[in-house]
């Protein structure tokens, strides 16, 4: 099994759906330790992506879809998260090159490049109470799952599980980056909104990979 453009576009659509579904929750988290716009920012960005997704040309490969997300998020999302998440998708696109099918190693490379893109852009370290605290455990778990011989679905499920745990683990932290860093100890007890949205997006990746693998439709191109 491997994952192709059908998975990537399903992942993007499912990300848009869950971001919209969790919009208020993300706004509430950001209201507690930021300015309350995170759910709005991501929802606006992913809605714009969905508008453009059908315009992908016939024969588009995973990197084309990832690049579309990157440029759209960077141009439509204000705030810190637009450039950060946009850079993640841009670097992810670069990591998979022109490949039509993504195997486990390619999926790990995609996730690693995405995380590295956020770090490149935002200079956050693990423990700074940012989206990196979801992404870094996700990348580590994905690499471990690959080493354990798990398939693409297993790798993405491990990443999603670790991202959720990582997002939860931001609650006791003091923020050292972003708006929440102005709050000092008052940020303690609140989950970082960007880590929560990252966990949602990674869960969407795992769920859609499982669906594509289950239906077998996305594996057709491999034969
Ligand atoms: P803004 O902070 O400009 O209002 P958002 O509310 O959309 O933008 O996004 C806030 C999220 O961005 C935070 O919850 C955090 O996860 C993430 N973030 C902020 N600064 C950084 C950074 N330097 N590196 C990584 N992530 C960051
Ligand atoms: Mg905000």
Please specify the SSE layout and strand pairing.
Elements: H1 5-21, H2 23-33, H3 38-53, H4 62-76, H5 81-96, H6 104-122, H7 132-147, H8 152-168, H9 193-215
Helix pairs in contact: 1-3, 1-4, 1-9, 2-3, 2-9, 3-4, 4-5, 5-6, 6-7, 7-8, 7-9, 8-9
This protein binds adenosine-5'-diphosphate and magnesium ion.
Adenosine-5'-diphosphate binds at residues 30, 34-35, 37-38, 41, 79-81, 84, 118, 122-124, 130-132, 177-179, 192-195.
- Please state the CA-atom Rg, rounded to the nearest Å: 16 Å
* Helical stretch tally: 9
Mean pLDDT reading? 95
CATH superfamily: DhaL domain
| Proportion in helices | 55-70%
pLDDT under 50 segments (min length 5)?
Answer: 216-223
Written overview of the protein:
The protein is mainly α. It has a single domain (5-215), classed as Serine Threonine Protein Phosphatase 5, Tetratricopeptide repeat (Alpha Horseshoe). It is 67% helix and 0% strand. The chain has helices at residues 5-21, 23-33, 38-53, 62-76, 81-96, 104-122, 132-147, 152-168, 193-215. Helix 8 (152-168) runs antiparallel to helix 9. The longest helix has 23 residues, at 193-215. The radius of gyration is 16 Å and the shape is globular. It binds adenosine-5'-diphosphate and magnesium ion. The site of magnesium ion (MG) has 6 residues, from loops.
């Amino acid at each position: 099994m491997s994952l192709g453009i059908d998975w990537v576009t399903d992942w993007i659509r499912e990300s848009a759906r869950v971001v919209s579904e969790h919009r208020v929750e993300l706004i509430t988290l950001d209201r507690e330790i930021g300015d309350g716009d995170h759910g709005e920012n991501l929802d606006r960005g992913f809605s714009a992506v969905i508008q453009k997704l059908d315009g992908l040309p016939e024969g588009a490969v995973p990197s084309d879809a990832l690049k579309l997300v990157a440029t759209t998020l960077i141009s439509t999302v204000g705030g810190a998260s637009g450039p950060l998440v946009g850079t993640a998708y841009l670097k992810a696109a670069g990591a998979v090159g022109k490949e039509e099918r993504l195997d486990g190693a390619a999926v790990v490379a995609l996730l690693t490049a995405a995380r590295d893109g956020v770090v490149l852009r935002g200079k956050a370290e693990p423990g700074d109470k940012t989206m990196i605290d979801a992404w870094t455990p996700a990348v580590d778990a994905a690499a471990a799952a690959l080493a354990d011989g798990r398939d693409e679905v297993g790798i993405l499920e491990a990443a999603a599980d670790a991202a959720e745990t990582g997002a939860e683990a931001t609650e006791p932290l003091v923020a050292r980056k972003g708006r929440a860093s102005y709050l000092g100890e008052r940020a303690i007890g609140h989950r970082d909104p960007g880590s929560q949205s990252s966990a949602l997006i990674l869960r969407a990746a795992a769920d859609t990979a499982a669906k594509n693998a289950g239906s077998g439709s996305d594996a057709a191109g491999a034969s």
